[in-house]
Amino acid sequence: MTLPANQRPVPGPRGRPILGMMPEMVSDMLGLFSRTAREYGGIAQFKLLNKSYLLVTNPDYVKYILQDNYKNYIRGRSVETGRVLLGNGLPLIDGDFWLRERRMLQPAFHRERLGKLVNTVTAVIDTFMQDWAERARQNQTLDLDNEMMRLTLTVIIKSMFSSPIDDKIPALSHAFNVASKFMLWRSQQMVQLPLSLPLPRHIEYNRALHVLNDTIYPLIAEARKHPKDDLLGMMLDMRDADTGEGLSDKQARDEVVTIFFAGHETTAATMAWAFYLLSQHPEVEERLRMELKSVLERRAPTFADLPRLVYMQQVLNEVLRLYPAAYLFAREAIVDDVLDGYHIPANTLIFISPYVGHRDPKFWPDPERFDPERFTPEQAASRPRHVYYPFGEGPHVCIGNNFAGMEMQLILAMALQRFHLRLVPNHPIALKPEATLRPKHGMKMTVEAL
Ligand code: HEM
């Protein structure tokens, strides 16, 4: 294509005929993205099976796409495969539909509202800690990846529904896990067959979907009759400012499943990496324990304590810099655009990777080093604002970031008050970039009561 004189071509690797960079993408996606950004700069183009994609890592360009001109850069095709389970949940919609929904849901996630959920969250964490104490007595190891997945799923289910549902949690969690694994698997298939075809995977998925829906719809009906102060109650309470309408049952169901999905694996993965990094940096862990002692003096943390755990917040920020659970997300251009002289044709799919951006040596000296000091107010102020975006940025910024922050602080505080966790010697550490950035071999740790 010939570009107008004032436009420049986007650089990028040539790749192989037909396949483009597909082999590299399949064998080591994060390696491919990191190398591409390093070699070609903050905007690069590459081909996968003859289709062109962009990788954008320059923080100003990221801001332009996610914020300044976000209306032209929608989620579009990039999230289509999620629809099978999540329906029209917030991350899968765009335009006016998204705006109306976001405005309705936003207040349920405000910091002050979240204070009402703290007791629910701490009660779940406490149950897990009691189990860990028993495991410590028996010298058993824990897979922190698995533990955190179970913990955060229970937290989000119980925060959503405060009615007594303990007896339903195992079946609901199982159905949700089967359904979300299926969604991921399906998103990786070249051809997506109709779900009505009686293949074993489809049958298993359809069963799981029934369990999910048969559990969630009655809980929504019950919550409409007897409103509660839980996440669902807050969501159902909201009204569209223009029409006065609230969420329909179907929309409420989609948002419940979406929040289970968006709000548990991300937090779980971050916590698994946090425990790993602390086990490798005893001096950081020691300082965290000192902060906990001075702020909490051995009692359980409350909502009011959380802003005072300043060093803990720095540690979590640094964990999310090195291992941003949402390591990659995408946008699709609606119409042709020009970004700093680069032509972006309509329909282009654009990858944005906090994992790559957060390791850019221009903004993060010695980027592989774990150093919570990067997030002291002074150091944070010395960096451009848009180089750190573990929760995204612009209007689609994570709606659950305060919830995640609260939950992660509570888990860390309650675990460190009671246990020493150490990585099992020689346990292999590698990245598994799938729906979120998780440890490929789990995170086997020994647990010792203090
Ligand atoms: C450490 C934990 C988390 C991380 C790293 C994370 C990351 C992100 C990111 C990067 C986005 C923006 C994606 C985009 O722009 O396409 C996002 C959106 C979203 N997140 Fe989170 N998230 C976390 C926890 C949560 C929790 C706890 C919830 C719910 C309780 C949640 C619900 C959502 C929803 C509904 C959206 C879509 C927002 C919209 O499109 O308006 N997330 N998250």
Polypeptide structure, described:
The chain is 50% helix and 11% strand. It contains 17 helices and twelve strands. The chain has helices at 22-27, 29-40, 59-68, 83-86, 95-105, 111-114, 118-137, 144-160, 169-187, 200-225, 231-237, 249-280, 282-296, 310-322, 354-357, 377-381, 401-418, and strands at 43-48, 51-56, 73-74, 141-143, 329-333, 337-339, 342-344, 349-352, 419-423, 431-433, 437-439, 444-449. A five-stranded mixed beta sheet has the order 1-2-8-5-3. Strands 4-12-9 form a three-stranded antiparallel beta sheet. Helix 8 (144-160) packs antiparallel against helix 12, helix 9 crosses helix 10 (200-225) and helix 12 crosses helix 17. It is globular and about 70 Å long. The termini are far apart. Protoporphyrin IX containing FE binds next to helix 12 and helix 17.
Proportion of residues in β-strands: 5-15%
Enumerate how many helices there are, as a single number. Answer: 17
Query: Which structural class fits the helix and strand makeup?
Result: alpha+beta
- Give the rounded overall mean pLDDT: 94
- Rg over alpha carbons: 22 Å
Please provide the ordered H/E string of secondary-structure elements.
HHEEHEHHHHEHHHHHHHEEEEHHHEEEE
Main-sheet strand order equals 1-2-8-5-3
Shape: globular
Q: Work out the number of β strands.
A: 12
Amino-to-carboxy terminus distance? 66 Å
Q: What small molecules accompany the polymer chains? A: protoporphyrin IX containing FE
Oligomer: single chain
- The parts where pLDDT drops under 50 for at least 5 residues are none
Query: What level of helicity do the residues show?
Result: 40-55%
Taking the sheet with the most strands, its summary is: 5 strands, mixed
